[in-house]
Amino acid sequence: GRSPPPLAALSQVLRLERSRRTGVVFPLQKLARCLAPGADTARFRLFQPGLAALQRAEALFRSGRDHAIDYVSSAVRMDHAPPPALPEVCFIGRSNVGKSSLIRALFSLSPEVEVRVSKTLGHTKKMNFFKVGKYFTLVDMPGYGYRAPQDFVEMVEAYLQERHNLKRTFLLVDGVVGLQKTDHIAVEMLEEFGIPYVMVLTKIDRASRGLLLKNVLEIQEFVKEKTQGCFPQLFLVSSLEFSGVHLLRCFVAHVTGNLPTVEAS
After folding, report:
1. Are 92 and 144 in contact (CB under 8 A)?
2. What residues form DSSP beta bridges with 166?
3. CB count, 10 Å around CB of 1?
4. Which of 219, 235, 205, 192 is nearest to 91 (CA)?
5. d(CA 194, CA 174)
6. Contact predicate 25/13, CB 8 Å
7. Per-residue model confidence as pLDDT tens digits over 123-174
8. CA terminus-to-terminus distance, the chain
């Protein structure tokens, strides 16, 4: 299979000098340093796992002889979905938000896992299920917004309402443009069904620090004032530079109950 890209493994990240290492593992904390003195940074560091937790999470995302990571199946309707045997997380977002690229980055230490990244926008028309050993399932949901399948809302609504093993939904938002009208539709759906979710800002390598900080502060405010089910800390990621990918793996492990000894410290 393909060899994993640089910085896909923690061992490579740990060799970086300290400031750069923080930027890769905790990009939101690094951004918090740009805030005015005395600003409240609590929401920048709610989930702050130590090295042991990050390593445990990395092991879950690395396939091995006794730990298979497989694409299981695709489903257009709920009755085609695999049985809800394991804790599950799902990833949703606008069609060109970089969802498949992020899932590929999460699974980059298991190059045999085939995540289809489309050159044409809005390619994911089905729910794609990936099974991570006997630990959890990750679902790549169809993109919404521009050229999304007409039945997207019905499919996703049915999934969110019926999937009782769903532990957390990851709502991907473009870090360059921030929350869009279509994102608000997804937020309203998650809020209406009482689904716990978390917002992930993608493509942070394409935004200047000032723009990124502006978007982060605006979205944090929105989460605080207008949402009930959203985790107060945002997650920042770059699938290209691997910023935030290690932390996101760790949060997935945490919400699926696979970090037994390591709480967010």
Report:
1. yes
2. 88
3. 9
4. 235
5. 23
6. yes
7. 557 899 999 999 999 999 988 875 555 567 778 889 999 999 999 999 999 9
8. 36
Q: What pLDDT is attached to residue 264? A: 45
Residues 195-223, mean pLDDT to the nearest whole number: 97
Rounded-to-integer distance, Cα 164 and Cα 161, Å: 8
Res 149: pLDDT: 54
Amino acid found at 145: G
Contact 239, 98 (CB under 8 A): yes
Residue 116 to residue 109: CA distance in whole angstroms: 16
Gap between the Cα atoms of 251 and 249, Å rounded = 6
Closest CA to 258 of 87, 71, 26, 62: 87
Classify burial at 105, counting beta carbons within 10 Å of its beta carbon; exposed 0-12, middle 13-18, buried 19 or more. Answer: buried
pTM strictly above 0.85: yes
- The residue ranking higher by pLDDT, 11 or 5, is 11
CA dihedral over 232, 142, 8, 249, signed as positive or negative:
positive
Nearest to 202 by CA among 232, 235, 170, 175: 175
- Per-residue pLDDT band for 102 (boundaries 50, 70, 90) equals very high
CB 102 within 8 A of CB 91: yes
CA distance linking residue 139 with residue 141, whole number of Å: 6
Residue among 75, 119, 114 at smallest CA distance from 96: 119
Rounded CA separation 187/53 (Å): 29
Q: Cα–Cα distance between 50 and 105 in angstroms, integer?
A: 21
238: tokens are 């770059």
